[in-house]
Design brief:
homodimer; 271 residues; Rossmann fold; 2 domains; hydrolase (chains A, B); inorganic diphosphate phosphatase activity (chains A, B); metal ion binding (chains A, B)
Amino acid sequence: MADSGWPGCAKSLKGVILDMCGVLYDSGEGDGVAIPGSIEAVKKLKASDLLLRFCTNETQATRETFVAKLQRLGFDISVSEVFSPAPAAVAVLKERGLRPHLLVYDGLIPEFDSVNKANPNCVVIGDAAEKFSYQNLNEAFRVLIGLEKPVLFSLGQGRYYKETDGLKLDVGVYMKALEYACDLKAEVIGKPSPTFFQSVLNDMGLQPHEALMIGDDLVNDVGGAQHCGMKGVQVRTGKYRPCDERHPTVTADGTVDNLAQAVDMILNQRH
Amino acid sequence: MADSGWPGCAKSLKGVILDMCGVLYDSGEGDGVAIPGSIEAVKKLKASDLLLRFCTNETQATRETFVAKLQRLGFDISVSEVFSPAPAAVAVLKERGLRPHLLVYDGLIPEFDSVNKANPNCVVIGDAAEKFSYQNLNEAFRVLIGLEKPVLFSLGQGRYYKETDGLKLDVGVYMKALEYACDLKAEVIGKPSPTFFQSVLNDMGLQPHEALMIGDDLVNDVGGAQHCGMKGVQVRTGKYRPCDERHPTVTADGTVDNLAQAVDMILNQRH
């Protein structure tokens, strides 16, 4: 059964999905820094017969701004290859006729330009960072508690992330805060939501078993992908911690030092 | 069994414990306002043969400042009769040799004057209101995540409270946020912690069945007291909502319009 495990499964793969922060680059001051070997690894994947998509829970900037940053770092990447929670949220809002109160980073607001935000009947929170003030959280809370059927969307459910100057609280923490305040359950848009992974697979025209997810977040990247029927490989960069390799509920199909090693192993299997 | 229920149980009572905000007064701009009949009701209890204590989860001011406000509103009350979470927390910190990082309202800080706060090995959060900024919450998070055995104390676990200008998020919401961020369970000091109620009973020298709690918060006042073996009566003032009277898990021993009515019913039973 070597072919069904890692890296044997690479023989029958048709596509690869890459997480971005912690796999391609480390965030921080300015544009952050590319992780050694990652720029070349993306080039090799693009030169191969594999389909490639990028899948991020980044919600501090529009996809356009975000992709421009990656391009400045040296990555061969375009907006149409990138899946992020905000455009997925916009689709859900329109489909369900919902008008959001936004608690998101200023840089993300243009993603919601096409959405009616008057007289809000739901709340959308993203990684708002400094905008998670008491006043702003209280405002979002008052919108929710004033609704007959409060609906809260959270763009991801991360606990925290690492920037070059230290750990930062992520959106999931504020999702839990509002869930408790209003006694409700948020709808998560982004990883690890199965709907989100499925939208990437649909775009590639692939079945789950034909795709592999590579990420640094064991639960949201690897576990989320596995939950959808994909393989999931974890890199030992970004937010990886050694204790991930003995996690009680999620076991990666493979663990590699970094994206460069993962890509070399995949391509070696296919030659 | 009329004597074991409400108000029959009042015949055998030896003491009464009163919640403060929402029972004695409504908070808001300045000192807030006394709830009609409450000043007189406290006087009647003090003139009776019943022991009386006050029990609050107020953590925005020292007990001294808080009691002075109540006295200005017209209440006959002294500091030694009031039980609040901060002094209880100080006792726990000293007993366990813990040095807190404080995320509390400025007005509460003097309560912790006698505690060593250098090189913190735990975090204490209270109702910090505007001080619950992203930066301050992140700072508390970094202290916790940097500890080998992170310990978080929460002064209460309320979801929100009502001020004259609207609903405000309470400390419990930020407790849940930090619990999720650090994957831990906070220790709650204050109502509805059984330890907290027991410390009031100890001070009165009473057994639980000899005391009655009167509060506006069904879960934290009434449910918490009942959990300790006391009777619990809810007033229809403060944060009372009609749906409290059909709550899935907590049923008050009695529900009354306000403190004045509760006290009249108690004293009538005893004549």
